[in-house]
Amino acid sequence: MTATQEQATAAASGANATERFKTDKLGALADTPPERVSLLAREVLEAVHSTIRRHKVTYDEYNALKAWLIQVGEDGEWPLFLDVWVEHVVEEVATEHRQGNKGTIEGPYYVPNAPERGSHGAVPMRADEPGTPLTWSGQVRSTDGSVLAGATVELWHADAEGFYSQFAPGLPEWNLRGTFTTDAEGRFEIRTIRPAPYQIPTDGACGKLIAAAGWHAWRPAHLHVKVSAPGHELLTAQLYFPGDEHNDDDIASAVKPELVLAPQPAPDGHGDVVEYDFVLDPERA
Ligand code: MBD
Ligand code: FE
Fold it and tell me: Where in this protein does the record put region Disordered (predicted)?
């Protein structure tokens, strides 16, 4: 095991994800009317009640659930739990009107304000960053076909061992996280490395559920992106690699066929090259 793996506990990355979420997103719902809060809370509770009745849930099972829910919080794994098992449906509902690019879930490991790298450049990485080099070029357009110059492409992904900077210890702060701005033709070119498939932490409460249910903990290898331009809806997406065994079996249910890349060996023999463009929806009136 490497030094990074030894220290990458669920509690450590969970605590980081929980802190990050509290800093960025709390307080977003202060204006929700009580009628809607009541409706949603009641329907969720009714779904729980009907599961208990249908399957005659015992006191031992109820107490196991209580202990497990407490542990999710203690391990800081609420962001992980929700993003893995719930977010994909929220994303589906939030973006069903879109004509442009398909998106998918954000997941727990986005950090805003990654270092700027212009329109063509490399993400911050270690001098000896392991992994197959990947050069990704693309263009950002609006749904009417017009080119979006000055659009922002934020990229973040795991390293070749499956670790995210700022969540797993021992990595440089902005490793494999960068912000790119499209040129006058709406184009960008990003140099990075291919990430590894990602196994969600197995030593915390989410891992306990996975083991107890006989599930697996894998997500396919993926690149996370946020693409934005003035007057357009923010696109949050992930891009996947063909042939990954978990593309059809992602624990986070976040793969869509439109998001699978088609990389080719680079003509200069230096890793892979890939093209992938984005189409953004104009903001609705
Ligand atoms: C990830 O890297 C991720 O993208 C999601 C959705 C959940 C856990 C880890
Ligand atoms: Fe991820």
Answer: 97-124
